Amino acid sequence: MENEKYIVFALCKGRLAFKTLELLEKIGITCEEMYDKETRKLVFVNEDLKLKFFLAKGPDVPTYVEYGAADIGVVGSDIILEENRRVYEVLDLGFGKCRMCVCGPESAKELLKHRERIRVATKYPTIAKDYFFNRKNQTVDIIKLNGSVELGPIVGLSDVIVDIVETGSTLRENGLDVLEEICPLSARVIVNRVSMKMQNERICDIIDKLKAELERG
Ligand code: PRP
Fold first, then answer.
1. Max Cα separation, the chain?
2. How far apart are alpha carbons 88 and 69 in whole angstroms?
3. Which atom number of ligand 1 is nearest to the Cα of residue 171?
4. What is the rounded end-to-end Cα distance, in angstroms, of the chain?
5. Residue 143 dihedral angles phi and psi, to the nearest 5°
6. Ligand 1: residues whose CB is within 6 Å?
7. Environment class of residue 129 by beta-carbon count within 10 Å: exposed (0-12), middle (13-18) or buried (19+)?
8. Atom 10 in ligand 1: which residue has the minimum CA distance?
9. What span, in angstroms and rounded, lies between the C-alpha atoms of 85 and 81?
10. Rg of the chain taking only CA atoms, in angstroms
11. Would you write out the chain's pLDDT as a tens digit for each of its 217 residues?
12. Which atom of ligand 1 lies nearest, measured to the CA of 168?
């Protein structure tokens, strides 16, 4: 075990990280250090299991995994679709379920129906472009925002938004509706392409245990 390489996990900061740690704990993968809320540490180690963990901003997780700075990443499929990195997607964890949707005021339905050249505000320009240009054959103007995208139609920046809908309460509270559904989303496990070959046994073992736990669960 002494010379064995660490397997490195990149997790998304926030809700998804807690859910992921809960699941990993069930298959015997723990990291005590990570539960310390006061800590400013960025990388957490489990020496016994030769594992390392770090938390990153969601869109950066596939980047760390593509370049091999992390062997395994857990991230939402929205980010996988948007970032389009060269990684293997190996498992759907089934939590973090939500939908990517076109949303807006009721009145925007007509604009969509007639394929008007509308303005679309979104944190997900790649997904929005693919949906409108390739799937719908509709020319639109995409406006990239970094959050609180629902503001777009409310303050007159855009006609519609492309965004994640989970409970729908953000839309409801702001007088917007789901107008079209683009795709369902959930948390996924991604693996670096080289790690998959080099550390195959240890990584496959982790993936198999996760699969079995999900099936039990
Ligand atoms: C996400 C998303 C919606 C909201 C949807 O935003 O962009 O705004 O959650 O959830 P709901 O359907 O349960 O209301 P997030 O909280 O990640 O923040 P952001 O708006 O800054 O992107």
1. 65
2. 15
3. 14
4. 31
5. -115, 120
6. 123, 147-150, 163-170
7. middle
8. 166
9. 8
10. 20
11. 455 789 999 999 988 988 999 999 999 998 888 877 788 888 999 999 999 999 999 999 999 999 999 999 999 999 999 999 999 999 999 999 999 999 999 999 999 999 999 999 999 999 999 999 999 999 999 999 999 999 999 999 999 999 999 999 999 999 999 999 999 999 999 999 999 988 789 999 999 999 999 999 7
12. 12
- Going by alpha carbons, the residue nearest to atom 2 of ligand 1 is 164
Binning the chain into helix, strand and coil, the percentages to the nearest 5 are 40, 30, 35
CATH of 7-96+186-216, one of 3.40.190.10, 3.30.420.40, 3.30.310.50, 3.20.20.210: 3.40.190.10
Fold of the CATH domain 98-184:
D-Maltodextrin-Binding Protein; domain 2 (3.40.190)
Pick left, alpha or beta for residue 130 (phi over 0 → left; psi -120 to 50 → alpha; otherwise beta): alpha
User: 152-168: string of b/e by CB count within 10 Å (b at 16+)?
Assistant: bbeeeebbbbbbbbeee
Q: What would the 3-class secondary structure string for 12-61 be?
A: ECCHHHHHHHHHHHHCCCCCHHHHCCCCCCCEEEECCCCEEEEEECHHHH
Residue nearest to atom 19 of ligand 1 (CA): 147
